[in-house]
Amino acid sequence: MTKHLVLTGASSGIGRELAVLAEKAGFRLSICGRNAQKLATTVEQLDNQADTFNQAFCMTDESAVAAFFKGVAQANGPVDVLINCAGLNNVRLPADATPIEQLDWLMRINCYAPIECMKAVIPDMKQLGGGTIVNVLSTVCLFSNPGIAAYTASKAALDAYTKVMRKELAAEHIKLLSVYPGGVDTDFREASRPEYLTAKDVAEAIMTMLNTGPSAHIHELVIRPESERNF
How far, in Å, CA of 22 to CA of 108, rounded? Predict the structure, then answer.
């Protein structure tokens, strides 16, 4: 039976590329994104559109997240793979000038929501005897860049949480894999940066992380553009 992959943030960028590649790799897909129109565009690029469960909602809406995973189970059964790709980086202020409300918003999107998604699929994975969770983090977890304290804190918090879960769930054969992309040229950015990684570059790297045997864990994968020197 084909494996069931759940993907957040599938409406654009890395998430959209992942949806296309995952389907080509033979996964049954359940996907979500914040923008309904953009998510529909992703679905249009898939071959098995009718079999792809999809919903549009904001990841900060806990009831919507719960409803999504209920629908996921009904449509495609237990979850074998979760990729937390949804994220936001829209607070660009010095650390001492960042309102706590804006920090809280990024924590809810970039940290708390992925944790809720992990908690939603772990019971399935325990029952299946294993599973894989991939969290799309950022090289900001490894290198401090001025002006993005809130984004850095939110990604670093998820990074730390993931490292603890990795040890806690190892005996259950649940892989916790982290990918740290550097600069990526997507709509995430205000200006085009053609010298950066493409969304497909990162998506292909994530698919490589999934394509290992049961005893092999690519715990942490850092991928940067050749032009980047912030390490």
Answer: 27
CB 181 within 8 A of CB 196: no
Question: From residue 75, how far is each of 29, 54, 111, 215 by CA, in Å?
Answer: 10, 10, 26, 29
> What single-letter DSSP state applies at residue 179?
E
Name the β-bridge partners of 32.
55
Instruction: Count Cβ atoms within 10 A of the Cβ of residue 13 and give its class: 0-12 exposed, 13-18 middle, 19 or more buried.
Output: buried
| Residues 46 and 22: beta-carbon distance below 8 Å | no
Name the CA dihedral angle for 70, 59, 28, 206, rounded to a multiple of 10 degrees. -140
User: By the 8 A CB rule, do 125 and 205 touch?
Assistant: no
pLDDT of amino acid 106:
96
What pTM was estimated for this model as a whole?
0.95
Strand 81-84 with 4-7, pairing: parallel
Amino acid at 77: G
Tokens, residue 184: 């990526």
CA 196 – CA 164 distance, rounded (Å): 31
Q: Which of 151, 161, 180, 196 is catalytic?
A: 151
Active site annotation includes 151: yes
- Reported as a single tens digit per residue, the pLDDT across 12-57 is 999 999 999 999 999 999 999 999 999 999 999 999 898 999 999 9
